Amino acid sequence: MKCVVDRIEEGVAVIIVKGGGKMEIPVKQFPFEIKEGMFLKANFTGDSEERERVKRSIKKIRGRLRKRSG
Q1: What is the 3-state secondary structure (H, E, C) of the chain?
Q2: How many CB atoms lie within 10 A of CB 15?
Q3: C-alpha torsion 62→64→68→70, nearest 10
Q4: What is the pLDDT of residue 30?
Q5: pLDDT given for residue 29 in this prediction
Q6: Please, how many CA atoms are within 13 Å of residue 66, restricted to the half-sphere of its CB?
Q7: Of 13, 11, 12, whose CA–CA distance to 40 is shortest?
Q8: Sign of the torsion formed by the C-alpha atoms of 32, 6, 46 and 63
Q9: pTM for the complete prediction?
Q10: Distance (Å, whole) CA 67 – CA 21
Q11: Is it the case that residue 69 has pLDDT exceeding 90?
Q12: pLDDT of 45 higher than 90
């Protein structure tokens, strides 16, 4: 996906996506220096490890809640 950094406001990059859409991402999230007018390629991938970690966490919380409501 092709994007351009429209502006940076209070440490947040406002990124316009070619074809429509906008993202706001904290500048500190980028592993390189980001500047207004910079063109970017974005490539998102799924994170199955994080998904499983969250599912396990939710399962533990549900178990504790069930115990409490007993």
Answers
A1: CEEEEEEEECCEEEEEECCCCEEEEEHHHCCCCCCCCCEEECCCCCCHHHHHHHHHHHHHHHHHHHHHHC
A2: 20
A3: 70
A4: 95
A5: 95
A6: 6
A7: 13
A8: positive
A9: 0.71
A10: 44
A11: no
A12: yes
Q: Do the beta carbons of residue 44 and residue 31 sit within 8 Å? A: no
Confidence of residue 49 (pLDDT cuts 50, 70, 90): very high
Q: Are 13 and 34 in contact, with CB atoms under 8 Å apart? A: yes
**Which tokens is 31 given?**
């592993």
What is the C-alpha to C-alpha distance for residues 11 and 18, in angstroms, rounded to an integer? 22
Q: Dihedral sign, CA of 41, 29, 31, 6?
A: positive
**CA-CA-CA-CA torsion sign (4, 12, 53, 57):** negative
Give me the amino acid identity at 3: C
Please state the length of the chain: 70
Per-residue tokens: 3: 């994007």
